[in-house]
Amino acid sequence: MTARQLRARLKGWGGVGAMATACALTLVFALLLTCTNSLSRTAAEPAGQSLSPAAQTQAQADEECTAPEKQTLPPSDADGPTIEAIKGRQGEKRKLIVGVDQNSYRWGYRNPNSGESGTLEGFDIDLVHRIAEDILGDRNAVQFKAIPTDQRIPAIEDGRVDMVVRTMTINCARVRDVAFSAPYFRTGQQVLAPKSSPVKGYDETLAHREICTATGSTAYSQLEADKKAGRLPESADIRTTVPNQLDCLVRLQLGEVDAVVTDGALAASQAAQDPTVQLKGEAFTTEYYGVAMKKDADDLVRRVNQILVDFREDTADGWQDSYTEWLSATLGDDPSPSEPPAPEYLRTS
Protein backbone atom coordinates (compact mmCIF):
# COMPACT_ATOMS: atom_id res chain seq x y z
CA MET A 1 0.00 0.00 0.00
CA THR A 2 1.42 3.40 -1.00
CA ALA A 3 1.54 6.46 1.22
CA ARG A 4 -1.03 8.12 -1.07
CA GLN A 5 -3.45 5.21 -0.57
CA LEU A 6 -2.91 5.42 3.17
CA ARG A 7 -3.70 9.11 3.22
CA ALA A 8 -6.83 8.50 1.16
CA ARG A 9 -8.02 5.87 3.62
CA LEU A 10 -7.31 8.12 6.54
CA LYS A 11 -9.50 10.95 5.24
CA GLY A 12 -12.07 11.67 7.86
CA TRP A 13 -9.83 10.67 10.76
CA GLY A 14 -9.40 14.36 11.21
CA GLY A 15 -6.69 16.90 10.50
CA VAL A 16 -3.25 16.74 11.96
CA GLY A 17 -3.83 13.53 13.85
CA ALA A 18 -4.67 11.64 10.68
CA MET A 19 -1.63 12.95 8.86
CA ALA A 20 0.61 12.18 11.81
CA THR A 21 -0.69 8.63 11.91
CA ALA A 22 -0.21 8.24 8.17
CA CYS A 23 3.34 9.51 8.35
CA ALA A 24 4.12 7.24 11.29
CA LEU A 25 2.76 4.18 9.48
CA THR A 26 4.62 5.10 6.31
CA LEU A 27 7.81 5.43 8.34
CA VAL A 28 7.25 2.02 9.94
CA PHE A 29 6.75 0.41 6.52
CA ALA A 30 9.89 2.06 5.20
CA LEU A 31 11.92 0.93 8.19
CA LEU A 32 10.63 -2.63 7.92
CA LEU A 33 11.47 -2.73 4.22
CA THR A 34 14.97 -1.41 4.90
CA CYS A 35 15.59 -3.93 7.70
CA THR A 36 14.24 -6.81 5.64
CA ASN A 37 16.45 -5.96 2.68
CA SER A 38 19.43 -5.51 4.95
CA LEU A 39 18.88 -8.86 6.65
CA SER A 40 18.41 -10.60 3.29
CA ARG A 41 21.66 -9.16 1.99
CA THR A 42 23.45 -10.13 5.20
CA ALA A 43 22.19 -13.72 5.06
CA ALA A 44 22.85 -14.17 1.36
CA GLU A 45 26.09 -12.23 0.97
CA PRO A 46 28.39 -12.24 4.00
CA ALA A 47 30.64 -9.24 3.42
CA GLY A 48 34.30 -10.02 3.02
CA GLN A 49 33.87 -13.77 3.49
CA SER A 50 34.54 -16.50 0.95
CA LEU A 51 32.30 -19.55 0.90
CA SER A 52 33.61 -22.70 2.56
CA PRO A 53 33.51 -25.96 0.59
CA ALA A 54 30.40 -26.92 2.57
CA ALA A 55 28.73 -23.61 1.68
CA GLN A 56 29.73 -24.06 -1.96
CA THR A 57 28.24 -27.53 -1.87
CA GLN A 58 24.98 -26.16 -0.46
CA ALA A 59 24.83 -23.35 -3.04
CA GLN A 60 25.25 -25.86 -5.84
CA ALA A 61 22.76 -28.24 -4.25
CA ASP A 62 20.11 -25.54 -3.88
CA GLU A 63 20.59 -24.33 -7.45
CA GLU A 64 19.10 -27.45 -8.94
CA CYS A 65 18.59 -30.70 -7.07
CA THR A 66 17.99 -33.36 -9.67
CA ALA A 67 20.65 -35.88 -8.63
CA PRO A 68 21.19 -35.58 -4.85
CA GLU A 69 23.44 -38.65 -4.83
CA LYS A 70 26.03 -36.63 -6.78
CA GLN A 71 26.11 -33.69 -4.37
CA THR A 72 29.03 -34.80 -2.25
CA LEU A 73 32.69 -33.83 -1.86
CA PRO A 74 35.63 -35.56 -3.59
CA PRO A 75 37.41 -38.26 -1.55
CA SER A 76 40.50 -37.53 0.54
CA ASP A 77 42.43 -39.39 3.26
CA ALA A 78 43.57 -36.16 4.95
CA ASP A 79 42.60 -35.33 8.53
CA GLY A 80 40.75 -32.13 9.31
CA PRO A 81 39.10 -30.48 12.33
CA THR A 82 36.21 -32.96 12.56
CA ILE A 83 38.44 -36.02 12.40
CA GLU A 84 40.98 -34.47 14.76
CA ALA A 85 38.20 -33.88 17.29
CA ILE A 86 37.17 -37.54 17.05
CA LYS A 87 40.79 -38.69 17.46
CA GLY A 88 41.24 -36.30 20.37
CA ARG A 89 38.67 -38.04 22.56
CA GLN A 90 40.30 -39.51 25.63
CA GLY A 91 40.18 -42.98 27.13
CA GLU A 92 36.94 -44.88 26.72
CA LYS A 93 35.43 -41.93 24.87
CA ARG A 94 37.91 -42.27 21.99
CA LYS A 95 35.33 -43.86 19.74
CA LEU A 96 33.40 -43.08 16.61
CA ILE A 97 29.79 -42.32 17.61
CA VAL A 98 27.40 -43.69 15.02
CA GLY A 99 23.62 -43.72 14.73
CA VAL A 100 22.36 -47.10 13.51
CA ASP A 101 19.32 -49.35 13.47
CA GLN A 102 19.19 -52.37 15.75
CA ASN A 103 15.96 -53.85 14.34
CA SER A 104 16.63 -54.17 10.59
CA TYR A 105 17.38 -57.81 9.88
CA ARG A 106 20.69 -58.24 7.99
CA TRP A 107 21.32 -54.47 7.96
CA GLY A 108 21.66 -53.46 11.59
CA TYR A 109 20.23 -55.89 14.15
CA ARG A 110 21.12 -57.64 17.38
CA ASN A 111 21.89 -61.28 16.81
CA PRO A 112 20.25 -63.17 19.70
CA ASN A 113 22.71 -66.04 19.25
CA SER A 114 25.84 -63.93 19.70
CA GLY A 115 25.91 -63.40 23.45
CA GLU A 116 23.94 -62.13 26.40
CA SER A 117 22.94 -58.76 24.96
CA GLY A 118 23.34 -59.67 21.29
CA THR A 119 26.00 -58.24 19.02
CA LEU A 120 25.03 -55.70 16.39
CA GLU A 121 25.50 -57.20 12.94
CA GLY A 122 24.62 -56.54 9.33
CA PHE A 123 25.69 -54.77 6.15
CA ASP A 124 25.52 -51.27 7.66
CA ILE A 125 27.41 -52.46 10.74
CA ASP A 126 30.23 -53.84 8.57
CA LEU A 127 30.57 -50.42 6.96
CA VAL A 128 30.70 -48.71 10.37
CA HIS A 129 33.52 -51.02 11.52
CA ARG A 130 35.40 -50.26 8.30
CA ILE A 131 35.12 -46.49 8.89
CA ALA A 132 36.24 -46.82 12.53
CA GLU A 133 39.23 -48.92 11.54
CA ASP A 134 40.34 -46.34 8.98
CA ILE A 135 39.93 -43.29 11.22
CA LEU A 136 40.87 -44.69 14.64
CA GLY A 137 42.88 -47.78 13.72
CA ASP A 138 40.46 -50.05 15.59
CA ARG A 139 37.36 -51.52 13.94
CA ASN A 140 35.72 -51.92 17.35
CA ALA A 141 36.29 -48.32 18.44
CA VAL A 142 32.61 -47.55 17.93
CA GLN A 143 29.84 -46.33 20.17
CA PHE A 144 26.59 -47.44 18.55
CA LYS A 145 23.45 -45.42 19.19
CA ALA A 146 20.07 -46.80 18.17
CA ILE A 147 18.29 -43.99 16.32
CA PRO A 148 14.62 -44.07 15.19
CA THR A 149 13.95 -43.21 11.54
CA ASP A 150 12.61 -39.72 12.28
CA GLN A 151 15.55 -38.88 14.58
CA ARG A 152 18.37 -39.48 12.11
CA ILE A 153 18.78 -35.86 11.04
CA PRO A 154 18.16 -34.31 14.51
CA ALA A 155 20.77 -36.65 16.01
CA ILE A 156 23.36 -35.36 13.52
CA GLU A 157 22.40 -31.70 13.87
CA ASP A 158 22.43 -31.90 17.71
CA GLY A 159 25.86 -33.53 17.75
CA ARG A 160 24.63 -36.71 19.42
CA VAL A 161 26.38 -38.75 16.72
CA ASP A 162 29.27 -38.22 14.31
CA MET A 163 27.35 -39.87 11.52
CA VAL A 164 24.34 -42.02 10.72
CA VAL A 165 24.72 -45.32 8.85
CA ARG A 166 21.16 -46.56 8.78
CA THR A 167 19.75 -47.42 5.34
CA MET A 168 19.32 -43.67 4.85
CA THR A 169 18.22 -42.56 1.40
CA ILE A 170 19.96 -39.55 -0.12
CA ASN A 171 17.31 -37.09 -1.31
CA CYS A 172 16.93 -33.39 -2.07
CA ALA A 173 15.11 -32.54 1.15
CA ARG A 174 17.80 -34.13 3.30
CA VAL A 175 20.82 -32.64 1.54
CA ARG A 176 19.62 -29.25 2.76
CA ASP A 177 20.07 -30.39 6.37
CA VAL A 178 22.97 -32.85 6.38
CA ALA A 179 25.94 -33.80 4.22
CA PHE A 180 25.99 -37.21 2.56
CA SER A 181 28.72 -39.48 1.36
CA ALA A 182 28.65 -40.96 -2.12
CA PRO A 183 26.07 -43.77 -2.44
CA TYR A 184 26.98 -47.18 -1.07
CA PHE A 185 23.80 -49.07 -2.03
CA ARG A 186 20.98 -48.90 -4.60
CA THR A 187 17.37 -49.78 -3.79
CA GLY A 188 13.80 -48.58 -4.43
CA GLN A 189 10.42 -48.31 -2.74
CA GLN A 190 8.35 -51.48 -2.81
CA VAL A 191 5.14 -52.89 -1.37
CA LEU A 192 5.10 -55.64 1.29
CA ALA A 193 1.82 -57.45 2.03
CA PRO A 194 0.53 -60.87 3.16
CA LYS A 195 0.88 -63.58 0.54
CA SER A 196 -2.91 -64.08 0.62
CA SER A 197 -3.59 -60.36 0.08
CA PRO A 198 -5.27 -59.12 -3.13
CA VAL A 199 -2.70 -56.31 -3.20
CA LYS A 200 -0.54 -56.83 -6.29
CA GLY A 201 1.87 -53.92 -6.07
CA TYR A 202 1.99 -50.15 -6.15
CA ASP A 203 -1.21 -49.80 -8.16
CA GLU A 204 -5.00 -49.59 -7.98
CA THR A 205 -5.10 -52.68 -5.72
CA LEU A 206 -4.08 -50.34 -2.86
CA ALA A 207 -7.47 -48.63 -3.06
CA HIS A 208 -9.26 -48.70 0.30
CA ARG A 209 -6.17 -50.25 1.91
CA GLU A 210 -4.39 -49.00 4.99
CA ILE A 211 -0.66 -48.56 4.34
CA CYS A 212 2.06 -48.30 6.99
CA THR A 213 5.29 -46.30 6.64
CA ALA A 214 7.98 -45.07 9.01
CA THR A 215 7.75 -41.48 10.20
CA GLY A 216 10.24 -39.30 8.36
CA SER A 217 10.88 -41.94 5.70
CA THR A 218 11.12 -41.39 1.96
CA ALA A 219 8.30 -43.93 1.63
CA TYR A 220 5.83 -41.63 3.37
CA SER A 221 6.99 -38.60 1.36
CA GLN A 222 6.54 -40.58 -1.87
CA LEU A 223 3.05 -41.78 -0.93
CA GLU A 224 2.00 -38.28 0.08
CA ALA A 225 3.26 -36.79 -3.19
CA ASP A 226 1.74 -39.56 -5.32
CA LYS A 227 -1.63 -39.22 -3.62
CA LYS A 228 -1.73 -35.49 -4.34
CA ALA A 229 -0.69 -36.13 -7.94
CA GLY A 230 -3.27 -38.87 -8.46
CA ARG A 231 -0.71 -41.64 -8.91
CA LEU A 232 -2.00 -43.40 -5.78
CA PRO A 233 -5.72 -44.18 -5.31
CA GLU A 234 -7.47 -41.42 -3.36
CA SER A 235 -9.00 -44.00 -1.01
CA ALA A 236 -5.61 -45.40 0.03
CA ASP A 237 -5.10 -44.62 3.72
CA ILE A 238 -1.51 -43.50 4.46
CA ARG A 239 -2.12 -42.10 7.95
CA THR A 240 -0.42 -44.96 9.82
CA THR A 241 3.20 -44.02 10.56
CA VAL A 242 5.52 -45.59 13.13
CA PRO A 243 8.96 -44.75 14.59
CA ASN A 244 10.75 -47.74 13.01
CA GLN A 245 10.17 -49.90 9.95
CA LEU A 246 9.96 -53.10 11.98
CA ASP A 247 6.90 -51.65 13.72
CA CYS A 248 5.15 -51.70 10.33
CA LEU A 249 5.82 -55.42 10.00
CA VAL A 250 4.32 -55.97 13.45
CA ARG A 251 1.23 -53.95 12.47
CA LEU A 252 0.95 -56.06 9.32
CA GLN A 253 1.23 -59.30 11.29
CA LEU A 254 -1.48 -58.12 13.69
CA GLY A 255 -3.80 -57.28 10.82
CA GLU A 256 -3.88 -53.60 11.75
CA VAL A 257 -2.71 -52.52 8.28
CA ASP A 258 -3.03 -54.05 4.82
CA ALA A 259 0.37 -53.24 3.36
CA VAL A 260 3.77 -51.73 4.11
CA VAL A 261 5.76 -49.47 1.80
CA THR A 262 9.49 -49.28 2.40
CA ASP A 263 12.83 -49.74 0.65
CA GLY A 264 12.87 -53.02 -1.24
CA ALA A 265 16.15 -54.00 0.43
CA LEU A 266 14.52 -53.67 3.86
CA ALA A 267 11.25 -55.24 2.74
CA ALA A 268 13.13 -58.33 1.48
CA SER A 269 14.73 -58.74 4.91
CA GLN A 270 11.34 -58.39 6.59
CA ALA A 271 9.89 -61.04 4.27
CA ALA A 272 12.77 -63.30 5.31
CA GLN A 273 11.70 -62.87 8.93
CA ASP A 274 8.07 -63.75 8.22
CA PRO A 275 7.22 -66.39 5.55
CA THR A 276 3.56 -65.27 5.50
CA VAL A 277 4.39 -61.95 3.77
CA GLN A 278 6.03 -61.16 0.45
CA LEU A 279 7.10 -58.33 -1.85
CA LYS A 280 4.32 -57.32 -4.21
CA GLY A 281 5.19 -55.91 -7.61
CA GLU A 282 8.39 -54.21 -8.66
CA ALA A 283 10.23 -51.30 -7.05
CA PHE A 284 8.64 -48.04 -8.20
CA THR A 285 11.51 -45.66 -7.36
CA THR A 286 15.31 -45.70 -7.54
CA GLU A 287 17.09 -44.58 -4.39
CA TYR A 288 20.59 -44.66 -2.94
CA TYR A 289 21.79 -45.10 0.63
CA GLY A 290 24.50 -42.80 1.93
CA VAL A 291 26.35 -42.06 5.16
CA ALA A 292 24.95 -38.85 6.67
CA MET A 293 27.12 -36.31 8.54
CA LYS A 294 27.02 -32.66 9.66
CA LYS A 295 26.89 -30.03 6.94
CA ASP A 296 30.23 -28.48 7.92
CA ALA A 297 32.11 -31.76 8.44
CA ASP A 298 33.89 -31.49 5.08
CA ASP A 299 36.96 -33.49 6.12
CA LEU A 300 34.83 -36.33 7.47
CA VAL A 301 32.70 -36.44 4.32
CA ARG A 302 35.83 -36.61 2.14
CA ARG A 303 37.35 -39.31 4.34
CA VAL A 304 34.22 -41.47 4.27
CA ASN A 305 34.12 -41.11 0.48
CA GLN A 306 37.71 -42.35 0.30
CA ILE A 307 36.81 -45.29 2.56
CA LEU A 308 33.87 -46.13 0.29
CA VAL A 309 36.16 -46.16 -2.76
CA ASP A 310 38.44 -48.65 -1.00
CA PHE A 311 35.49 -50.65 0.40
CA ARG A 312 34.09 -51.20 -3.08
CA GLU A 313 37.46 -52.06 -4.64
CA ASP A 314 38.65 -54.51 -1.98
CA THR A 315 38.33 -58.14 -2.97
CA ALA A 316 38.62 -59.32 0.64
CA ASP A 317 36.39 -57.95 3.41
CA GLY A 318 34.96 -55.39 1.01
CA TRP A 319 31.51 -54.48 -0.34
CA GLN A 320 31.10 -57.75 -2.24
CA ASP A 321 31.94 -59.94 0.74
CA SER A 322 29.59 -57.99 2.99
CA TYR A 323 26.78 -58.29 0.43
CA THR A 324 27.35 -62.03 0.11
CA GLU A 325 27.34 -62.57 3.86
CA TRP A 326 24.32 -60.48 4.77
CA LEU A 327 22.12 -59.78 1.76
CA SER A 328 22.50 -62.47 -0.90
CA ALA A 329 20.01 -64.72 0.92
CA THR A 330 17.27 -62.10 0.60
CA LEU A 331 18.27 -60.11 -2.51
CA GLY A 332 19.88 -62.84 -4.61
CA ASP A 333 23.42 -63.90 -5.46
CA ASP A 334 23.82 -61.27 -8.17
CA PRO A 335 24.73 -58.01 -6.45
CA SER A 336 24.66 -55.84 -9.59
CA PRO A 337 21.08 -54.51 -9.08
CA SER A 338 22.15 -53.27 -5.65
CA GLU A 339 25.49 -51.79 -6.63
CA PRO A 340 25.51 -47.99 -6.70
CA PRO A 341 26.76 -46.22 -9.83
CA ALA A 342 30.33 -44.99 -10.11
CA PRO A 343 30.51 -42.02 -7.73
CA GLU A 344 30.38 -38.45 -9.03
CA TYR A 345 31.52 -35.54 -6.92
CA LEU A 346 30.97 -31.80 -6.75
CA ARG A 347 33.69 -29.49 -7.98
CA THR A 348 35.05 -27.20 -5.27
CA SER A 349 37.45 -24.31 -5.76
Q: How does this structure look, described?
A:
Keywords: Membrane, Signal, Transmembrane, Transmembrane helix, Transport. The chain crosses the membrane at residues 12-33. 40% of the residues lie in helices and 16% in strands. It has 349 residues and is of the alpha/beta class. The strands form 5 sheets. A 5-stranded mixed beta sheet has the order 11-10-12-9-13, with helices on both faces. A 3-stranded parallel beta sheet has the order 5-1-6. The protein has a 3-stranded antiparallel beta sheet with strand order 2-3-4. A hairpin with a 3-residue loop joins β2 (103-104) and β3. α5 packs across α11 (298-313). Residues 1-49 have low confidence and may be disordered.
Please write out the topology:
Elements: H1 3-9, H2 15-44, H3 53-63, H4 81-87, E1 96-100, E2 103-104, E3 108-111, E4 119-121, H5 123-136, E5 142-146, H6 152-157, E6 163-164, H7 172-175, E7 179-180, E8 185-187, E9 189-194, E10 210-214, H8 218-229, E11 237-242, H9 245-253, E12 259-263, H10 264-273, E13 277-280, E14 287-289, E15 292-293, H11 298-313, H12 319-326, H13 328-331
Parallel strand pairs: 1-5, 1-6, 10-11, 10-12
Antiparallel strand pairs: 2-3, 3-4, 7-15, 8-14, 9-12, 9-13
Helix pairs in contact: 5-11
